[in-house]
């Protein structure tokens, strides 16, 4: 078994396990997952509800800690980081996109995108310039001063993608980003993620049960009952 990370893998996961106590039983959400993600990959993790997809994404993103196993990102085992170092990793290395958008309803699109940069210590003028550039990038130049309730679902998800990019992360983690969207709008969001991957070299890992996302990604992995059902192609 490997005990050191490979130099050519951006993300290397080995024998990853995550168990939860459910009453008197221990349930294995992940049961020995081993995968690698190279820089510039666009990987979809597919599987039915309860297969461990979101758990895997949250572990890569540092939102949860594994029961056992390793997650190396750029050679650093993030499972071994203390809380301060893990917060820095989440802030600098990873951008999150969620199914439910998670926008702050009292803030405008511009303010929502700027918000994460406050914790990164970015000066106000630079925060605003960066947020405006990203909102133009995702096609919302004319919606910057609109609040979430004044935006469609697809527009809200575009704001969420811009927010995920504001600290210039190398990795975008997307958890069912099309789950609350109709098929046409979902396709537009996937095209945007594909553009970020191809034109800007962002590494994207997307979790979904929607088979249509496979049209946009470079490779697909299937999880079933917390295990890899097929190897990444």
List descriptors.
alpha/beta, six-stranded mixed beta sheet, Rossmann fold, globular, 27% strand, 233 residues, four-stranded antiparallel beta sheet, single chain
Give an overview in words.
The protein is an alpha/beta fold and 233 residues long. It has one domain (40-62, 82-230): P-loop containing nucleotide triphosphate hydrolases (Rossmann fold), CATH 3.40.50.300. The protein has helices spanning 53-60, 83-93, 109-119, 124-137, 153-165, 183-200; strands at 11-22, 25-37, 42-46, 68-73, 76-77, 94-98, 171-175, 203-208, 219-224, 227-230. The protein has a 6-stranded mixed beta sheet with strand order 6-7-8-3-9-10, with helices on both faces. Strands 2-1-4-5 form a 4-stranded antiparallel beta sheet, with helices on one face. Strand 1 (11-22) and strand 2 form a beta hairpin. The longest helix has 18 residues, at 183-200. The mean pLDDT is 91.
Return the structural class.
Answer: alpha/beta
Number of helical runs?
A: 6
Percent of residues in helical segments? 25-40%
Instruction: State the distance separating the first and last CA atoms.
Output: 22 Å
How many domains, as an integer?
1
Low-confidence stretches: none
Q: Can you tell me the CATH topology?
A: Rossmann fold
Full CATH superfamily name: P-loop containing nucleotide triphosphate hydrolases
Shape summary: globular
What Rg, in angstroms, do the CA atoms define? 18 Å
- How many strands, what sense, and barrel or not for the largest sheet? 6 strands, mixed
Compressed to H and E, one letter per element, the order equals EEEHEEHEHHHEHEEE
Task: Name the beta content range.
Answer: 25-35%
CATH class call: Alpha Beta
CATH architecture: 3-Layer(aba) Sandwich
What average pLDDT do the residues reach? 91
Number of strands: 10
What strand order characterises the main sheet? 6-7-8-3-9-10
